[in-house]
Amino acid sequence: MVTYKGGCHCGAIRFEVDAPSSLSVQRRDCSICKMTGYLHLIVPRENFRLTHGEHAYNTFNTGAAKHHFCRRCGVKSFYEPSSHPDSISVNVNCIDADTLGEMSIEPFDGQTCEQNVAELSGLSD
């Protein structure tokens, strides 16, 4: 396991996340992820630490997923996915570039996420 550091564009939100040194992330084509270019790294909640900015974000709640956006710059660096309610999805694009190593990007059909959620099993283990 490696500790990655990252945050939003303006620095109001900072986090640390423990994940494997070789990352496997998902590019989903659901409407919000496609429009924002979000790359998903899903980790157990205990592997994610918000180190700065506890009150710096607003939450857009879809009724299942809780999307957190920086109040200042608007970047969504992490959220609570409906597919993994006990996990956090970190936007790999928000991880500090100097901490990233090997990474593979897998496509995922987010248009019909509920029907395909079984494909995501084991991601947050």
Overview of the structural elements:
- The chain is mainly beta.
- It has a single domain (2-117), classed as Metal Binding Protein, Guanine Nucleotide Exchange Factor, Chain A.
- Helix content is 8%, strand content 42%.
- It has two helices and ten strands; from the N terminus they run E-E-E-H-E-E-E-E-E-E-E-H.
- The strands form two sheets. A seven-stranded mixed beta sheet has the order 6-7-8-9-4-3-10, with no helix packed on it.
- The longest helix is centred in the N-terminal third of the chain and has 6 residues, at 31-36.
- The chain is globular, with a radius of gyration of 13 Å.
Topology:
Elements: E1 2-7, E2 14-19, E3 23-28, H1 31-36, E4 39-44, E5 48-52, E6 57-61, E7 66-70, E8 78-80, E9 87-91, E10 103-108, H2 113-116
Q: Total domains, how many? A: 1
By DSSP, the count of extended strands is 10
Low-pLDDT parts are none
Secondary-structure element order, as H and E? EEEHEEEEEEEH
The global form is globular
Strand % is 35-45%
As an assembly, this protein is single chain
Distance between the termini: 12 Å
CATH topology: Metal Binding Protein, Guanine Nucleotide Exchange Factor, Chain A
Going across the biggest sheet, name each strand in turn: 6-7-8-9-4-3-10
Largest sheet: 7 strands, mixed
- Write down the overall mean pLDDT: 84
| CATH first level | Mainly Beta
Summarize the structure.
It contains 2 helices and 10 strands; from the N terminus they run E-E-E-H-E-E-E-E-E-E-E-H. With 125 residues, it is mainly beta. It has a single domain, classed as Metal Binding Protein, Guanine Nucleotide Exchange Factor, Chain A (Beta Complex).
